[in-house]
Amino acid sequence: MSPPVENHGPLASRDDLVELRRRFAETGRVVVGNILADAYAQALRAELLAWPRWALVARIDGRHYDFDVAEFERLPVARRAELDALILAEAGRGMQYRYERHPLYDLDYDAGPLPPALAGFRELLQRGAFLALARAITGQAAIAFGDGQMTRYRRGHFLTRHDDAHPTKRRVAAYVLGLTPDWGADQGGQLQFLDEAGRVEDTVVPGFNTLTLFRVPRPHLVGAVAPFVETSRLSVTGWLREA
Fold first, then answer.
1. Mean per-residue pLDDT over the chain, rounded
2. Cα separation of 27 and 36, whole Å?
3. Bond from prior residue into 76 cis (ω within 30 degrees of 0)
4. Nearest Cα to Cα of residue 151 among 140, 162, 159, 143
5. Which residues pair with 56 in a beta bridge?
6. Contacts of 15 (CB under 8 A, 6+ apart)
7. For the chain, what is the total number of helices (H) and then of strands (E)?
């Protein structure tokens, strides 16, 4: 057992750092349970549930689009069906995604005023205990900051195979902060890690107050949320980056 890591404000105390680092070194990925103090995790989830401004993101004819969700849902049924068909056709040809997001932090983006818990997590992406923990688990002392976005997957949402590589953003690792309780495997929306042949190596079912951390580049996908699901798969996602 590793020596305990004391509580640092919104992060929970833990005594499994040595084991987490060993597993990350061995497999390039790890799921950290109870990453945040419970009250803080509950506050983050509540703020995501109440967040009013979401963009539906997808590709059409190779071009990225951000559709304001409220405006998209007011479109005539026929127009929405037309866009849905174009989105699905793109998925049949290659890389595609369909989910809802709102940026939280990046070097060239200012999210403006945020409610307290989200503002606190934005701070954690820039300095402090969250980055220190990520450096300790990954063994990457060069991690300088993290970027982030709020994400919401609802029925039919998905993200096809990709590896998160980017030519200029110097990504070291990717993270998914899960904020979804009581989510079953049959509801879809699972994070799946793939080998080079495209076979599934590991699957992470959405959870609450969990941090999935994995090395970049790494082939992975998010399976489609089942059509009967009434709730949302909520998370904060992003990348840990060198300066």
1. 95
2. 23
3. no
4. 159
5. 67, 100
6. 1, 2, 3, 4, 5
7. 6, 13
Rounded to an integer, the average pLDDT of 66-90 is 97
Per-residue pLDDT of 181-191, as tens digits, reads: 999 999 999 99
Q: What amino acid is encoded at 18 in this protein?
A: V
pTM: 0.94
Neighbours of 138 (CB within 10 A): 22
Q: In this structure, what DSSP letter does residue 198 have?
A: S
**Which among 224, 209, 96 has a CA at the least distance from the CA of 153?**
224
DSSP strand pairing (143-146 vs 220-222): unpaired
Helical ranges in 96-188 per DSSP H = 116-124, 129-138
Tell me the pLDDT tens digit for each residue of 158-182. 999 999 999 999 999 999 999 999 9
Residue 29, burial from CB neighbour count under 10 angstroms (0-12, 13-18, 19+): buried
CA–CA gap between residue 97 and residue 122 (Å, rounded): 24
DSSP code at position 216 = S
Strand 220-222 vs strand 158-162: parallel, antiparallel, or unpaired? Answer: antiparallel
The pLDDT confidence band at residue 9, using thresholds 50, 70 and 90, is: confident
What stretch of H or E contains 153? strand 148-153
Q: Do 215 and 28 contact (CB within 8 A), yes or no?
A: yes
Tokens of 238: 């992003």
Asked if residue 240 lies in contact with residue 146, where contact means CB atoms within 8 angstroms, the answer is: yes
Paired with 63 in beta bridges are 60
Which residues have a Cβ under 8 Å from the Cβ of 92 and sit 6 or more positions away? none
